[in-house]
Design brief:
The structure is a homodimer of 333-residue chains. Chain A has 333 residues and is α/β, with parallel strands linked by helices. Chain A folds into 2 domains: 153 residues, Medium-chain alcohol dehydrogenases, catalytic domain (Quinone Oxidoreductase, Chain A, domain 1, Alpha-Beta Complex); 150 residues, NAD(P)-binding Rossmann-like Domain (Rossmann fold). The first copy, chain A, contains 9 helices and 15 strands. In chain A, strands 3, 4, 5, 6, 7, 14 and 15 form a 7-stranded mixed β-sheet that branches. In chain A, helix 2 crosses helix 3 and helix 5 packs across helix 6. The longest helix of chain A is centred in the C-terminal third of the chain and has 14 residues. Chain A starts with a strand and ends with a strand. Chains A and B meet through helix 7 and strand 13 of A and helix 7 and strand 13 of B.
Chain lengths: 333, 333
């Protein structure tokens, strides 16, 4: 059978465009003993994938020009000669950006049944949700009564970080890029929401939103947001550095904050982390989050694009603020 | 009797000059019960004092214009009506920048006898030495076999950090501002020393000096040194932020490093600290360092200026690289 896939056509400089992606088809052979055939149902687009489009050493290997892109995906086994992955199993993998593929089961997990769409295993029950939880609990050690600031707060990670912050007993201040996103977070009970595109000065706006100061900053953005956080951190504040999306498409080095001396003055701790290094805690997270989702204490929002053809647009949309919550692509009709 | 003292004449912008200091004399009254009179023998000048010349909220109150400056000092009790501070006692205090003063004993410590000049209680056995130890052991948790990078490495803190790094089993790479200082550190057994003033590119020089990468950076300088460290850190590297002397005299905001994304890519931890918050561990430090000094495993270098008149020059000299090791002012002939 033929599988459709999206390959990297060329390495983008600046914001990726449709021209950096190409769709083609590959002939899949018949499966052999120990293999199974997967039809992908959902695929994920995430900001970190931008880093893999650059040819450089990082925590994850760069994408190869002319080869299919990779990323989180949820599929269904439609043919199988593997006892652990019978036909009908729903599986998660890192083999997104393609309609079908053959696997021997390595790096595949059979998903449990949940009363929600399986697509949430790409979001709140997957890497982005686990990232929010890891940053708040294991990196920043947020405590009840503290003030948390979350940037890119309506994104896949940020929206979970905000809601977890409230469940952990913190006052939560969020930054987003539209009034519509701000209203949505307010409706979720987030204490104060800044629209960074319409405020004159993020640092001043943050100071007004959190006159008591910030104890923990969940950093997704970098640049002016980091400067604003450093200005407003309390003594012994912690910054969990998850991403710096404002810089992923920079074509020239962007100077960092001019107020890094606050690290000394306020005795701050700034720590970067990669969620995969904390994955042995996923079971603990998934059980807890499953309960919160079941009771409605966490809302799992998604923005869904339809069809593999639209996967590049979904990805590019991440950098244009097109998503509320997790951006996913539905690969079936 | 009259005491001579140095007061803050005006708040400097940029590098302080002699004009920002003024010497005057004050009449001291007779001591009363519970008081004692101290003649200062030595006083300390330290880079952090620059921050106290600015009128801003920080971890320590700003200096007041027209009042005597403050800083570490070693004095001798020459009159006493206090049972715990008999005549002849050597005491440490924060009441430097003056020839004599009256105390009730608060924030004063009677010094033990050591086979070295008491001035070392302002350096290797005092705040700067304790800072080096705290940063390496309690903040960065340097381990044997790792590579340590120290900037401002011939200064009061840096020279101790380098030597402690070697005693802890690390490979030590240092940055200094003259070939003479580099030769001196080489003679102390420091593995590689960069002269940042003569190398074209600190990051490239650091990469050559430590092709295995940096595990711990002891940050005293900021700016290009921080950029270079971020470029060369290994995964899970730690940066103990003690100071950013390159920025203390800036008159306009200086942009920070453009490569902060390394915090995520390399999963770095950057932590600022103030030694006074760790002072309950001073006894542990002093005992260990006393042994190292006695056996010659640590060399305690000093640069000594003579006389209270020269205290401003000594202080200004810190920012001009005039000191090797601890800069102190001898207040007696």
């Amino acid at each position: 059978m033929k599988a459709q896939q999206i390959v990297l056509a060329s390495r983008p400089e600046g914001l990726p465009t449709a021209a950096h992606f190409k769709q083609n088809s590959v002939e899949l052979p018949a499966i052999q003993a120990g293999q199974f055939l997967v039809k992908n149902l959902w695929m994920s687009v995430d900001p970190y994938m931008r880093g893999r489009m650059i040819d450089r050493k990082s925590y994850i290997a760069p994408f190869v020009i002319g080869e299919a892109l990779e990323g989180g995906a949820i599929g269904e086994v439609i043919e199988s000669q593997h006892p652990d992955f019978p036909v009908g199993s729903k599986v998660s993998s890192m083999l997104g950006w393609r309609s079908h593929y053959i696997s021997d089961g390595s790096d595949h997990t059979v998903l449990p049944n949940i009363p929600l769409s399986e697509s949430h295993f790409l979001g709140v029950l997957g890497m982005p949700g686990m990232t929010a939880w890891t940053g708040l609990t294991r990196i920043a050690e947020l405590k009840a009564g503290e003030t948390l600031f979350v940037s890119a707060a309506s994104g896949a990670v940020g929206s979970v970080a905000c809601q977890l912050g409230k469940l952990m007993g913190a006052t939560v201040v969020a930054s987003v890029g539209s009034d519509e996103k701000a209203a949505h977070l307010n409706a979720l009970g987030i204490d104060k929401v800044i629209n960074y595109k319409t405020c004159d000065d993020i640092s001043a706006a943050l100071g007004q939103a959190a006159p008591q100061g910030i104890d923990v900053y969940f950093e997704n953005v970098g640049g002016e947001h980091l400067t604003a956080a450093l200005d407003n951190m309390n003594d012994h504040g912690r910054i969990a550095v998850c991403g710096m999306i404002s810089q992923y498409n920079d074509t020239a080095p962007t100077p960092g904050p001019s107020n890094l001396a606050n690290i000394i003055i306020k005795k701050l701790k700034i720590e970067g982390f990669i969620v995969f290094e904390h994955w042995d805690h996923y079971g603990e997270y998934a059980q807890q989050m499953g309960q919160w989702l079941a009771t409605g204490q966490v809302q799992a929002e998604q923005t869904i694009y339809q069809g593999l053809d639209n996967a590049p647009s979904a990805f590019i949309g991440l950098f244009e603020g097109k998503n509320k919550g997790k951006m996913v692509v539905k690969l079936t009709d």
